[in-house]
Design brief:
Strand content: under 5%
Number of strands: 0
Mean pLDDT: 84
Structural class: mainly alpha
Length: 230
């Protein structure tokens, strides 16, 4: 699961908490060195858990109204439903093609969950000799499918979150008072707090401590309004 590890490492600065999934992927990859019959069942359990965890994180981070406990019980806790809900929140276009794609993704989750229930070794302990023989090729295929699906979900979430933040930052800047809009106030600050270097106090206050600048500007405007009334 090297590509998944690489993805979360590349976005460490913006999403440090997602390093958890890089470690999770690394653990699943390490399972391949275990006993042949054991690692397949353990791998299935881990793949299913990884998908569930990623989806729960995406759902709760995008929709703050959803409580985690509601995703841990009943039909909502099933892998296919978690994938379906997460993918719906991430979809860019509400068209029949994208909805059909989401439906197909959820079916993959359903089959992984069913295989895990039948052959998993962690959540459902199995007696030996096992009734079903584990298949290394099938196990490898499921790990690769899980890696691709996990990478798609996380990458889509990163794009969604970064785009949302960019819009919010733009809106904040749009609502800001312009520095050049109040030259009289700026001159007053610069005269009151002269700086030795070329940097102006008013500009430094505006750039570094905008809220303080806004409060002092409002006080200045209020005082000016009182003077005008007199």
């Amino acid at each position: 699961m090297e590509s998944l590890e690489t993805l979360v490492k590349r976005h460490f600065k913006e999403f440090p908490d997602f390093q958890y999934y890089g470690a999770f992927a690394e653990f699943i990859s390490a399972i391949e060195s275990y006993h042949q019959d054991l690692h397949t069942g353990v791998s299935l359990d881990c793949c299913n858990s990884l998908l569930q965890s990623i989806c729960k994180t995406i759902i709760t981070q995008i929709d703050s109204r959803v409580e985690v406990k509601t995703l841990n019980k009943g039909a909502k806790s099933e892998t296919n439903n978690l994938i379906c809900e997460a993918a719906k929140l991430l979809q860019k276009n509400d068209d029949v093609y994208e909805r059909d794609f989401i439906s197909k993704l959820s079916q993959i989750g359903k089959h992984i969950n069913e295989l895990r229930n039948a052959r998993g070794d962690l959540s459902h302990g199995k007696h030996i000799p096992k009734e079903l023989l584990n298949d290394q090729d099938l196990s490898r295929l499921l790990r690769e499918i899980t890696e691709s699906l996990s990478r798609y979900l996380i990458s889509s979430f990163f794009s969604f979150a970064l785009e949302k933040k960019s819009k919010e930052d733009f809106e904040i800047k749009e609502n800001r008072i312009g520095y050049e809009d109040n030259p009289e106030f700026n001159d007053l600050l610069d005269e009151e707090y002269p700086l030795d270097n070329k940097l102006l106090y008013s500009q430094a206050l505006y750039e570094l401590y905008y809220e303080d600048y806004e409060i002092r500007l409002q006080t200045f405007l209020d005082e000016q309004a009182l003077l005008d009334e007199q």
